[in-house]
Write a structure and sequence with these properties.
Layout: E1 2-3, E2 20-24, H1 32-35, E3 44-50, H2 57-60, E4 70-76, H3 81-85, E5 93-97, E6 102-103, E7 116-119, E8 123-124, E9 144-146, H4 154-157, E10 166-169, H5 177-182, E11 189-192, H6 206-209, H7 219-224, H8 228-231, E12 238-242, E13 264-268, E14 287-290, E15 309-312, E16 316-317, E17 330-333, E18 335-337, E19 352-354, E20 357-358, H9 364-369, E21 376-378
Parallel strand pairs: 1-2, 2-3, 3-4, 4-5, 5-7, 6-8, 7-9, 9-10, 10-11, 11-12, 12-13, 13-14, 14-15, 15-17, 16-18, 17-19, 18-20, 19-21
C-alpha cells in the first residue's frame, strides 16, 4: 500500500494484515506512539516526511513490527542509538536519510543479519583520539552498502565485510590505493561519488600487504600496481566514478588494466583524459555514460563496438556520428549539433534517441533522415 500525502492519524486505520507500506509527505509529526499502531504483520515500511526528534527508549522498545525486513527512513529526524537499537532483529534492509550526522555508536546496535545498509549522512566518531579509534563493526552479512566517507580511511576500510558485492561511497579527500585493496576482491558494483578528489599514492606499507611485485621489482612496476584502476576487483561489472579516482593521469596508457567483465561504466569529470585513454575501454562494455571531456566526438571511433547504450554529456559534432558503435540501441546526447545529412549516419540499430539540446530545427526533412528503427524520440518533436 502506498500513500502520497496523509496525516499520521491514518495509520490508526490500516488493515491488520498489511505487509507493505510506503508513506510519503505526511503532514503531522510521526512519533513512537504511532509505531504501535502499525500492522504487526508488516514486512516493508518506507516513511518519508517529518519524524519527532525526541524518541525515548521506553517508547521505542518493541514498537516496530517484529517481522519487519525492510525499513526506509527518509525524513527530518535525528538518528539515535535507542531508535536503531529498537529495530527488529529480522531486518534485512535499512535505508536512513537523517537530518543530522549520526553518532558512530549506532553501529553497535544494528541488526547483525542486515544484508543491505544505506547510510546517507556522515558518522560522527567518538571523542577519543583517532589513533585510538577502533574500526566500526558493520553487520557481517552485508552484501550491499552505501557508506559515508569515514570508511575511506586506512584503518576503517579493513572492517568492510568480505561478502560485500555492491559498495557506494564518497570522499572529499583522495582515496588511497591501500584503502581500495581493503574493500574486498568480490565487489561487482562500485560507485564513487563525484565529490571524490584525485588519486593519491598508497602508503609505503601498502605494497607489502597487497599482491604488488616483490621489493626487487623495478620501481615503475610498483607504481603501476598501485594505480587505482589496476587494482580494482577483477569481478567488477558496474563502475561509476570520477576520472581522477582511477589514478591514471601520470601512467602510460598501454599499462591500464580494466576489470575484464565490466558491463556498465559511468565516468564523470573526464575533461583531463587524453584522447588515447578512450581506446582502453574494455570490449565487454554494453552501457557507457561519459561526462565532460575536452573533445567534441573525436573519441567516438575508439569506443567499444558492442555498446548498446551510450550517454554523452560532452558535445558531439556531425562528422563523428558515423563512428558511433554499429549496434547502438540508445543514444542520450546532451548537445548534438548535426547537419540534416549527418543524421543519416546514426546507427541503423538505434531505437531510442534523446537530445535536449539539438542544434537543428526539427522538420519533415530531419525526420526522414532518422533511422526508421527509432521508436522513441524525446525532445525532438517538441521543436517542430
Amino acid at each position: 500500500m502506498e500513500f502520497e500525502e496523509y496525516g499520521s492519524l491514518l495509520l490508526f486505520h490500516l488493515p491488520p494484515t498489511l505487509q507493505h507500506l510506503r508513506a510519503r509527505n505526511f503532514h503531522t509529526p510521526f512519533g513512537p506512539n504511532h509505531l504501535r499502531f502499525l500492522p504487526p504483520s508488516l514486512k516493508t515500511l518506507h516513511l518519508y516526511g517529518e519524524l519527532g526528534d525526541v524518541l525515548p527508549i521506553e517508547a521505542l522498545m518493541d514498537a516496530f513490527p517484529r517481522e519487519l525486513t525492510s525499513l526506509h527512513l527518509n525524513a527530518a529526524f535525528s538518528v539515535s542509538k535507542p531508535l536503531l537499537g529498537s529495530l527488529p532483529r529480522s531486518l534485512l534492509e535499512l535505508d536512513v536519510h537523517a537530518s543530522k550526522d549520526v553518532p558512530i555508536e549506532i553501529l553497535d546496535v544494528l541488526p547483525r543479519g542486515l544484508k543491505s545498509l544505506n547510510l546517507h549522512r556522515n558518522l560522527v566518531p567518538s571523542s577519543r583520539p583517532s589513533t585510538e579509534e577502533l574500526p566500526p563493526k558493520l553487520p557481517p552479512k552485508l552484501t550491499r552498502a552505501t557508506l559515508p566517507s569515514v570508511w575511506n580511511s586506512t584503518g576503517w576500510s579493513s572492517d568492510i565485510p568480505k561478502g560485500l558485492t555492491s559498495l557506494t561511497t564518497s570522499s572529499m579527500q583522495p582515496i588511497h590505493s591501500d584503502v581500495v585493496l581493503r574493500w574486498g576482491s568480490h565487489l561487482t558494483s562500485l560507485t564513487i561519488s563525484r565529490s571524490s578528489l584525485s588519486y593519491a599514492h598508497s602508503s609505503s606499507s601498502s605494497s607489502s600487504s597487497s599482491s604488488s611485485p616483490s621489493p626487487s621489482s623495478l620501481s615503475v612496476e610498483n607504481h603501476l600496481n598501485s594505480i587505482i584502476l589496476n587494482i580494482l576487483p577483477r569481478t567488477l561489472t558496474v563502475l561509476s566514478c570520477p576520472y581522477t579516482f582511477l589514478g591514471v593521469q601520470m601512467c602510460p596508457i598501454q599499462s591500464l588494466r580494466w576489470p575484464p567483465k565490466l558491463i556498465e561504466l559511468a565516468l564523470f569529470q573526464a575533461h583531463r583524459a587524453p584522447l588515447e585513454f578512450f581506446h582502453t575501454f574494455p570490449q565487454s562494455l554494453r552501457c557507457l555514460y561519459l561526462g565532460d571531456t575536452q573533445y567534441h566526438g573525436e573519441f567516438v571511433a575508439m569506443l567499444p563496438r558492442r555498446l548498446a547504450w551510450l550517454q554523452l554529456k560532452t558535445p558531439i559534432h556531425s562528422e563523428y556520428l558515423q563512428d558511433l558503435p554499429p549496434h547502438l540501441l540508445a543514444l542520450v546526447a546532451s548537445v548534438l549539433s548535426p547537419t540534416t545529412d549527418a543524421l543519416e549516419d546514426l546507427p541503423k540499430s538505434l531505437r531510442y534517441l534523446h537530445t535536449p539540446n539539438l542544434q537543428i530545427e526539427f522538420s519533415t526533412q530531419v525526420h526522414s533522415s532518422l533511422a526508421p528503427s527509432i521508436i522513441s524520440i524525446e525532445q525532438l518533436r517538441s521543436r517542430r
